[in-house]
Amino acid sequence: MNLEKKQINRFFLLATAPFVGLFIVLLFSMKPLHLEVDPALYAPEGTLKEQTDILKEHLDKADQSVKVTIASIRKTAALYNQTTAAMSSIVTNARTQALRPEIIYNRRITAKLGVPFERVESDRIRIELYRVNPGVYQGYAMKVKLKDPAAMKMSLGRDRVGGAETTMQAVARHGAVAGINAGGFADNGGKRYPLSTTVLNGKYLTGFESSFKDLFFVGLDPSGKLVGGKFYSQSELDRLKPSFGATFVPVLLKNGQPMPIPEKWQVSPKRAPRTVIGNYKDDQLIIIVVDGYNESGSSGATLQELQSKMYGMGVVDAYNLDGGGSSSLIVNGRVVNHPSDGNLRPVPTHFLFFK
Q1: CA nearest neighbour of 276 among 297, 256, 290
Q2: For the chain: N or C, fewer Cβ within 10 A?
Q3: Is 347 helix (H, G, I), strand (E, B) or coil?
Q4: Helix (H) and strand (E) counts for the chain?
Q5: Which residues pair with 129 in a beta bridge?
Q6: Which residues, 6 or more positions from 5, have their beta carbon under 8 angstroms from its beta carbon?
Q7: Could you give the count of Cα atoms lying within 13 Å of 238 in the half-sphere of its Cβ?
Q8: Which of these, 81, 128, 133, 84, lies nearest to 109 by C-alpha position?
Q9: Alpha-carbon gap, residue 239 to 248, rounded angstroms
Q10: CA-based nearest residue to 284, from 142, 98, 171, 114
Q11: Cis bond leading into 262, ω under 30°?
Q12: 290, β-bridge pairs
C-alpha cells in the first residue's frame, strides 16, 4: 500500500516538474507593465478653449458657405423661372406666327363667301354656312374644317346594300350634326344600289370597278384629306387608302384647273339642283348645294357655272355629286335647302359630319 502511494507521488512530481519550472522562469523574466495615457485627455484649460474657438471658426465658415450656396440656388432658380417664362413666350409666339399663314389664307377664302349666317364649332369640327346668290341661281355653301378626320363619315342607306333613306334620316340615325347626299345610284328590283366603286369603312362595298365614261370616285383618306379622280386599277385607288367614298359624274376641277365638262352633262339637264364638293389647299372642304324647282333643266345651276364659281373661290379639286331631287343639305336637325321634289329623296349614300 505504501509502495503504491510512493509510486503515485513520484509520477505527479515528474508530470508537474516542467510546468513549475516554466512558471518560475516566467515570474523572474517579466518586465513591469506601463500604461500610456493620451495627454490630450488631460490638456490644460487654455488648450481646450483654443480648440473650441477653432471648431467654432470652422462652423462659422461652414454656415457662411451654406448661406452663399442657398443664395446661389435661389438666383439659379429665379434665372430658371425667367428662362422658362421666356421660352414659353417664344413658343407661344412661334405658334402664333405659324398659324398666321393659315389665318390669312382662311380670311382670303372666307372673304369670297361673305358673312356666315350659321356656325357649328367643337373641338372636332368647324362648320360655316353661307348663302350663294350670284343672280342666276340660289344656293348654300358649307365650309368645313375637320379638326378630327373622324368627324366626317359616309353612311349606307339603312346599313345595307340596296337600302335607301333620306339625308335627314341618316343624320338622325347616326347622331350627326350635318349631312349631304353623296354618290349616284341605280334602281333595280325596288332597291337602290350605289353607283360603281363605293368604299365604306376602308373596304370595297361591292368590289372595285374601273372608271369608265365620265365616272369618278371621291372620298376621304384617314388623315381627313379629300381624294378623288378616275382610277383604272384598284392599286391606283388603294395607294390613296380611302376610308370611304362614292361615285358620280363629272370632275369639275383638278389641281386648281377646270376640267373639260363632257357635252352630254352640259345639256342633260342644262340647269338643275346640284350638290358639289371640293377642297382648298389647306384641306378645308367646301360644299355647294343649289336649289331648283325641278329636274327639267329650267331651274338651278349649270355645271359650268358651278365650275367657274369654285374656280374663282380658289378651290383645288371639285366634284359633282348626285343632284336633282337627291340634293339635300341638313344642318342642326333641319333641311337648309329646298328639295326640288318637295320632300327629301331617299338615296343609298350620305356624307355625314359630327361634332
Answers
A1: 290
A2: N
A3: strand
A4: 6, 20
A5: 118, 142
A6: none
A7: 7
A8: 128
A9: 21
A10: 142
A11: no
A12: 139, 274
- Using the structure block, give the residue that is written with the C-alpha cell 352640259: 266
Contact criterion met (CB below 8 Å) for 229 and 263: no
- Sheet containing strand 118-121, strands side by side: 118-121, 125-132, 139-146, 285-290, 274-279, 317-321, 251-254, 257-258
Residues of the chain by 3-state class (helix, strand, coil), percent to 5: 40, 25, 35
Cell numbers placing 78:
429665379
Q: What is the DSSP string of 217-286?
A: EEEE-TTS-EEEE--SSHHHHHTT--SEEEEES-EEEETTEEPPPPHHHHHTTSSB-EEEEEE-TTS-EE
pTM: 0.75
